[in-house]
Amino acid sequence: MKTVKLAAFKIALKSTLPIMTGFLFIGITYGIYMRQEGFNFLYPTFMAFIIYAGSLEFVIANLLIHSFDPLEVLLLTLIVNSRHLFYGISMLEKYNTADWRKYYLIFGMCDESFSINYATHVPKNIDRGWFMFYVTCLNHFYWVFAAMLGGILGGFINFKVNGLSFVMTALFIVLFLDQLLREKNHYSSFCGTLISAVFLLLLGKELFMPFSLLAITGIFFIKENRR
């Protein structure tokens, strides 16, 4: 069993190294941002561990310095992370084979862990359940460690650093452009961009995401059925 776990861990570590570099930068930025908003380093550390939703954590950090409305936070969380509903549906079969580990896999599924666990072709001699578990654990650890490190380092910065909350937006722009360059045809990217822009104009930034996701999913469902 130890050999099986070690082999799965090595593959997972290799697969998550690119994520580690990104998470270190963004997590440290998040920790510094929280510290500059007046919070002790323990806040970004425990928020990263418990919430574990990068973009949402930046949003909540801003909400915590104003009058706190639990209902607003609940609704905002559902809207911002509504994409995980679609991730979860895609992983039903894969996670169902992971026995007790599937509960942590469900909790720890972020964009990056979903991408790796869904798309990676694991060698036949590697236990996929342990591979997915270690991918999720490692990504979770990278994020929590980076947030804690940023929170500590933020205590040594005596000047205001503006624009830190934009780092998540910048990351998604880079990921989108990278995906765009890799595509053979740009139907999905243009479709997603156009639909999102239309719903953003119609519904505003608070509501456009879940409706955009539903519309995009419906279009591709119809397209695949016709094919």
Give a short synopsis of this structure.
With 227 residues, this protein is an all-alpha fold. It has 2 domains: 2-165, no CATH class; 183-227. The protein has 12 helices and no strands.
Question: How many distinct domains?
Answer: 2
Number of strands: 0
Overall body shape: globular
Provide the gyration radius in Å. Answer: 19 Å
Low-confidence stretches: none
- Tell me what portion of residues adopts beta-strand conformation: under 5%
Largest sheet: none
Structural class: mainly alpha
Average residue-wise pLDDT: 82
| Distance separating the two termini | 44 Å
Q: What percentage of residues falls in helices of 4 or more residues?
A: over 70%
H/E element order: HHHHHHHHHHHH
Membrane topology: Multi-pass membrane protein
Pfam families: AzlC (PF03591)
Transmembrane segments: 12-33, 45-65, 131-157, 163-181, 193-222
GO cellular component, one term: plasma membrane
Itemize the secondary structure elements and their pairings.
Elements: H1 2-36, H2 42-50, H3 54-63, H4 70-80, H5 83-90, H6 92-95, H7 102-107, H8 111-119, H9 128-154, H10 167-182, H11 187-203, H12 208-226
Helix pairs in contact: 1-3, 1-9, 2-9, 3-4, 8-9, 11-12
